[in-house]
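User: Some background: our group keeps a shared notebook of sequences we're curious about, and every so often someone picks one and asks for a predicted structure to add to the entry. Today it's my turn. The entry only has the sequence so far, pasted here. Could you supply the structure so I can complete it?
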Amino acid sequence: IQHHDHRLSSFSHLCQTHTTMFRQSFRRGATVSPPTCNSAARLLRMCLASSPSRTFSSHDPFHNANSRVFNDATMKQYLPPQLYQSFSQMLRTTVPISDDEQDELAYHLQHWAMERGATTFSHLFTPIRGNSASRKEAFVARSKNGDLHREYIGRDLFRKERIAISSYPGQSNRVKASTLWDVTSPPFVLNQTLYMPAMCRTEFGTIDEKTPHLRSIKALREAAARLCSVMGSDGFENKQPVQKLRPKRITDLDDDSDGELGWGQHWTGNKHHSKHVPTSDLNDMNDGSGMSTKSQSNSQSDAANAAANAPLRVLSNVSWEQEFYLVPKQAYLKRPDLIQTQQTLVGAPPHKARFNHFFSKQPEIVQKFLNEVQSELWQVGVPLSSSLSEVSFGQHELCSSPVPSNVSADHNLLLKELMGSVSSKFGLYTIFHEKPFLTMQGSSTHMNWSIDSEDGVKMFEPGTDAASQTRFVVFIAALIRATHSHQDCIRVSCATAANDLRLASNDENPSTIISLSLGDTLTNYLKKIETSGEIIPKGFTDFKALSKQLKKSSDEVHRTSPFAFTNGSCFEFRCQGSSDNLNFPLCILNTILADSLDHFARELERGKSVSQVVVETLKQHSDIIYNGDCHSKSWEKEAQRRGLLNSLKSTPQAFQRFRDAKNKELFKRHKIFSPQELDIRSTVKTEQYIETFLSAASCMLELQWSHIIPAAENDTVSDLSLICRERKQKLLKQLDSATERLRTVYEGYPANEDPLERAFFCTKLWAEMDAVREIADAMEPLVSHDLWPLSKFRELLLAHDEVIERY
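Assistant: Of course. Here's the predicted structure to add to the notebook entry:
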């Protein structure tokens, strides 16, 4: 009762009376009467039942929430107050903590992880070639007498030097790489391993997706702060201006870098003194780690000065809607194409209606699986908020709550990896391919992207007064300019072989023509600004009513729009494929918006008014706004009339355009990619595109030769029907002929040609595969079910519980 006295004191006067009686009895050492004890016990049970911090039962799903993530609340509990204050100040001011503080932080972090059963640690990073990578290292050391004992790693827990397993693109030899903890993304414990979300860098450039993303966050923050300092209180708080002259750190890209030099040499006012310096992370901590060799006193002094002059800080926040297919594991194992390519290369679609599955009740086995995934993710701090059945059979969706964009990207990767391991326990397999079933709805990862200040002000939310409404219009205009000026970059951000198939399908997926959907209400409001020449047109004085009206515009956007204003305060990017890493598209969005904010700041510094800048932007770039059906033929003609890009229908075309000089200058100016890094990224992605198609073609040939054709030839049951036999024989001849044509094209692959030429060869290869598939799908219903060697779509999609039980 003494322990919960603070809860009793918040109850009614009756509770307070009982509390006083108990206190007086404790002081005197007297015994409280049984009726008073019983009455107090009843009140205590009521208090505990209503308290948000009540003691949970072991069956409470929230009992272990955040129990395996080293977040801010955990740091408060495990770190000494001074260390916690220093670390929090580092996150806010970007001034690194001292070596001693690093060692102390590492000790407490490792101790916390080992309490949760961790025996190893790993830096989890995201290479260009794949989704995630890591290398586990044990908390163990060998003594002189040969005994093994626990070892505290120290500050090496945050930074690891190692030799890359594979060669860096463009280098013939193995190169030295280092991984570095992204301090803005909290560590977590999973499967007895302490995972540290990290960046990876080499002496030649970046080889991961997170580093450019963190650079873009920094570029966006600096651009918004610059615009804030120019506009003053006109839409922003009157923060301190950005320091124009600042010492360069090891991580900054030198202004005169020509792509051969490393990312950001140590700057001392002289020329570069090192040809290759590890590539930048450029996150909040400048060098990405928040770790430095400064003394503690200097760090505290720098932190105090930085806090006093801190400009406006904006955050790129993201929530995602992850779509995926769930199929029975045993049915999946009977599909060589799914195993090798994650998509079905043949298969007749089910005959039930396609669009009666949305929001339908999920099978029992699926519900149990998603509940397990949700519980596991809550423990490591992933804020899953909802789940639902999607349009197609076997297709589902999980949604998250908004968090900083780099953390959200980490959460999305963790979701995919965890779902893959948990699904096996339930006899299921999770498919994240964008188009695993050609005739069914594709899968994507919709990103709800918003720009918010540190104190919670949403830049894309209509304002309730003149200043906040000005801020809203400025940021909307900046995004309009960014989308129109950099359509090619946005297209590149979602360009993969699998996503090309999804975007090309004429269903609810967005078009490859990039446009911005704002809704009719907001579009008309911007037109009035354009015609009136004022950022707040006359007659719009009731800002609260205007805010409500403009927020409703987010309900008017079309579902096929690639980029749409939603929820009244954010933009939904719908082009992203379901299997893709979110770091790259978020890097693109942050960078192009930062570029527009910088442009606005320059124009204002030249003496133009805010209204002039916004009106000029709307006049030059409003052609990107389109609120209609992006799959209609009329839109293609209209887009051509407006001069929008419609030539980047495939990944090779997109990445070829990505290499343009304007894009290299854009990413170099904001210190995101060097020209060399941009070229390497384009080459890697093009090679991945080629390998995807070659793997699918070889698998298609194997399916025909080893499975489908032998099954059709050995089927004697269906031959009892004359009509069936004749039709099957005809299809067999056609299938033999089509398969032979595919083999001829596949063996004619121009291995020695330019990567772009080899990529365009894949278009011809896919056309031949389509011809084979059409015949094989027509053959499927003519072959006896018992002899058909592959799992059919109805076994994969329509009856999870029944199929699992039967297998």
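Suggested note for the entry: The chain has a mean pLDDT of 81. The two ends are 56 Å apart (CA to CA).
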